[in-house]
From TrEMBL:
Source taxon at top rank: Bacteria
Single GO biological process annotation from the record: glutathione metabolic process
CDD domains: GST_C_Sigma_like
PROSITE patterns: GST_CTER (PS50405)
Domain GST C-terminal as annotated: residue spans: 95-249
Gene3D superfamilies (alphabetical): 1.20.1050.10, Glutaredoxin
A molecular function (GO) term: glutathione transferase activity
Xref: InterPro entries: Glutathione-S-Trfase_C-like, Glutathione-S-Trfase_C_sf, GST_C, GST_superfamily, Thioredoxin-like_sf
Protein name as annotated: GST C-terminal domain-containing protein
Species the sequence originates in: Pandoraea sputorum
Pfam family, one: GST_C_3
Length: 249
């Protein structure tokens, strides 16, 4: 079985949540857009996504092609990809309840990621940020002052209510939801350094998850490697000085 990840080049985006699962578990994978063979690169991504003969096409990247001896399978949507990979990579518990729970946490993080994106693109994704700056200021103000405390208050409560989980979100072991929580916090530190200045004190359990993930040996090695694309202003988490605000925490 081999894994091929399809995502836009030059940015972390939603593909990073899948990369972290592979990297944290030491699982080999191929980034299709970084390859130059037949069916690879950007042409390979677009052809695979838009192939009229595909019976189960993905809507948009990220999507994963799993090559089985019995045939290939395409899996789309970040949370769906991680729900599939979690048991294979040892990043979720074995019980059905644990798997549903971690998927629920991942879907909640996906909601937060969508709100972060809509902070800098509140009118339409196809418009440039420069075309919606005034609206972005209003939307981001609400994100920082109300939505971020609400989301992280929830995750802080989850961690506080599970004292036997060893500081993780589920069953005392690192899960893909912990990796994704790390990525969201890292992205927000990049995007809103002023607003996030009080985060660690306000949400110490969430910060502890972030720190624990960063200390995982395989994750730490990945973060220092050239495979980790830097945050930038073409991704989900974007730093625009005019959108950052004083910390609400």
């Amino acid at each position: 079985m081999t894994f091929e990840l399809f995502y836009w080049p030059g940015l972390q985006g939603r593909g990073e949540f899948v990369r972290l699962a592979f990297e944290a578990s030491g699982t080999p994978y191929v980034e299709i857009v970084q390859e130059d063979g037949p069916g690879q690169g950007m042409d390979g991504l677009l052809h695979t996504m838009d192939d009229p003969a595909c019976t189960d096409p993905p809507f948009a990247p990220p999507f994963l092609r799993v090559r089985h001896p019995s045939g290939d399978e395409l899996i789309g949507q970040t949370a769906n990809i991680l729900a599939y990979l979690g048991p294979l990579l040892g990043l979720v518990g074995e019980s059905p309840r644990a798997r549903r729970w971690v998927n629920q946490l991942q879907l909640t993080l996906a909601d937060l990621v969508a709100e972060v994106h809509d902070g800098h693109h509140p009118i339409a994704s196809r418009l440039y940020y420069s075309n919606q700056k005034a609206e972005a200021r209003k939307r981001t103000a609400d994100l920082i002052e109300y939505r971020l405390p609400k989301f992280f208050g929830y995750f802080e409560r989850v961690l506080a209510n599970n004292p036997n989980a060893g500081g993780w979100l589920s069953e005392g072991a690192l899960s893909y939801a912990d990796l994704s929580l790390f990525q969201v916090i890292e992205g927000l530190y990049y995007a809103f350094p002023r607003a996030m200045s009080g985060f660690a004190k306000a949400f110490p359990r969430c910060q502890s998850v972030r720190d624990a993930v960063a200390r995982e040996p395989l994750v730490a090695a990945y973060l220092k490697s050239s495979r980790r694309t830097a945050f930038n202003t073409t991704g989900i988490f974007r730093h625009y000085k005019e959108l950052d605000r004083a910390s609400p925490f």
